[in-house]
Amino acid sequence: MPSIKNIIIPGSGNLPITLDIFFQHDREQKPIVIYAHGFNGFKDWGNFDLISEKFSAAGFVFVKFNFSHNGTTAEEPEIFTNLEAFGNNNYSRQLEDIKKVVDWVCDYGTGYLNENANLFMPSMMDCDQIYLIGHSMGGGTAILYAAADKRIKKLVTWASISECKTPWGSWDSEKMKGWKDTGVAYYHNNRTKQQMPLYYQLYEDYVENQEKLDIKNAIGKLNIPILICHGKADNAVPVEKAYLLNDWQPSAQLFITDGDHVFGRIHPWIEHKLPQEMETVVDASILFLKG
């Protein structure tokens, strides 16, 4: 399936957004699906190209991207080498990044893709049909963004959070005080063994923008089709959060699997097929978006 990898566009705070675009090589106009990764993640986590190819084969233009402050760089989009950026990430920056990606796919006048113009034509993208998919923290951000931008016509969440308190939502008062006093806390990345800094500005951004970052209010006022996918074995974001989102927006469809937070994937994922739970979620999402 044709794709163009690691396109660079400007992101929040003058840091780049690195994105990929997957498509069928024809001239037919197609809906656009934009995917937002979660906390401590990136666009290629768990061989996400396999998922991208499935959406592309189903008739979508599929765009996935790295948030500008997720800790990776344009040169190394799968490695957390910019920990200073990671520490300065917050929900407001992520909302700004999604807007920049949506603006990018809707801007036919930039002459982007340059030497690949013979392979991909912007006219393939139907900007009247832009859909968002978000995983975990990216799911919460996608809900917030969809409520703020009428260009988003459908929304799918995978293991989404229900409030903008990742990752400090379960911290006790002593740890919160230490975070404020020192200005930094650290998140241990079990896969890379890195100590990932989280500057106190993350919490300050939440406090200063609570109305804008209110997921309950955002999903409650949405009047577009919504699919909420979640796994019963999710230990990172309990499945109860999916039921809570559905309570706040009863018109949303609910799709519950037996999967975990990442629906059976790991990173690196070297197999050429998806685990069954992830396959099930992808198939349900495609069916929903084509409906």
Report the order of strands and helices: EEEHEHHEHEHEEHHEHEH
Question: What share of residues are in beta strands?
Answer: 15-25%
Secondary-structure content class: alpha/beta
- Give the biggest beta sheet: 8 strands, mixed
Poorly predicted runs? 111-117
- Average pLDDT, all residues: 94
Shape category: globular
How would you write the strand order of the largest sheet?
1-2-4-3-5-6-9-10
**What Rg do the Cα atoms give?**
18 Å
The count of strands amounts to 10
Oligomer: single chain
Estimate percent helicity. 25-40%
**N- to C-terminal separation?**
23 Å
Number of helices: 9
Topology (SSEs and partners):
Elements: E1 3-10, E2 16-22, E3 30-36, H1 49-57, E4 61-66, H2 83-87, H3 91-106, E5 125-135, H4 137-148, E6 152-158, H5 173-182, E7 184-188, E8 195-199, H6 201-208, H7 215-221, E9 226-231, H8 240-248, E10 253-257, H9 276-290
Parallel strand pairs: 3-4, 3-5, 5-6, 6-9, 9-10
Antiparallel strand pairs: 1-2, 2-4, 7-8
